[in-house]
Amino acid sequence: MKSNDWDVAYEWKAVALLALGFGLVGLDRWLIAPLFPSIMKDLNLNAQDLGNCIGILGLSWGIFAALMGGISDRIGRRKVLIPSIIAFSLLSGFSGIAGGLTSLLAVRALMGVAEGSFCPTSFAATADASHPKRRGFNLGLQQSGFALFGLALAPIIATQLLSVMSWRGVFALVSVPGLILGALMYFVIREPKAAAKPAADPAAKPAARASAHGAAHGAAASAERGNWRDVLKSRNIPVAMAALFCAMTGVFVLGAMLPLYLTEYLSLDTQRMGVVVSAIGFGGFIGQFGLPGLSDLIGRRPASIVGFAGTAVMLYLFRGLGAQPVQLFAVLFVASFFTLGLVSLLSGPVATEAAPLGMISTAIGIVVGAGEIFGGGIAPALAGFVATHFGIQNILWLPICAVLLGIVVSLLLEETAPARVRRRGGAPALELPASE
Description:
The chain is built from 17 helices and 2 strands. It has helices at residues 8-30, 32-43, 47-75, 78-94, 101-129, 135-161, 167-173, 176-188, 206-213, 228-232, 236-265, 270-298, 300-319, 325-354, 360-390, 397-410, 418-423, and strands at residues 2-3, 6-7.
């Protein structure tokens, strides 16, 4: 079905597959956290080792997100997307044959390479397929798969499967869906059709460039590209990098350490722990398309400020709760709505609309890479240090401080939401060409 020469049917098929793909990224990445109490006993590990396992994946993810984002702008989306989804699915299965910390760290580092390559390329492919009016919503919807599968379903799946198989069997089982999805992407995902490059003033403000570049980011094959230094000249890119570091610190410290916090400090059993931790994913699932979708209406900057402030309030309330599963779930649900919504907002529409022409995947890769290296790599390792040396009960101060800093950083964002730009008299957003 096409509407005004826009291939709506392809748009929804592509977004659905890419959302499922990013969901499997989340599942494979976060399955280790709820399994770790069992892994600790078998491999004689501790909380610092968990932080290091989460962190090393984040570091390699961040480096390769920055590298492969630019490469996919040059060689195409399919050549990166399909090999990377197959690779991280196989590596997830290999996690189950780890015999100790060294082999587990090695597998997790390689998973970060594959998942980091998939991440910015999949965001760019979603932006390529999306009508400008739905770009924020679609990018959020795609990223919401990460929260639903990785942070909502993974704790439930892991803790329930542990009753019938070992943690090694769980890793093997969850590697299969990614191989199937890789085959489906091969037949469905298209490269964007080339389009004429509109004239652009390199000194133009990000808001004006965001409107103009809507017509061109699907045309990366024909656009004249610069290098990563050109991406950093856009004010919103370094601001988004810093803000995403703050948001990801909240996400990854909670995702990595809450299972231990709930079982060791609050003394919840494994099944109740799994249900409470799943609130991160269910709240984040709604937030990852809800907050970016809201930003289409109220603007990227106000939505970012609200997201950080809401997260700070909820985490402070969470810290004061005892072993009360219902209340813990409810507060964590709202906190995750905001903080995972921020991840989606900053790495999706904010990065997309600030990117130079033909460099959308490069821009996303740089923003995500910075957020992953610091928020997904260093922060979990730091949280492991805090838990080991100062007590697991003190880990929540790290995300609380990070999101408070995020409020200040968000004040520096320049507004680029097409609807807000039009209301202020900026250039109207142009439509993207349909993919071939």
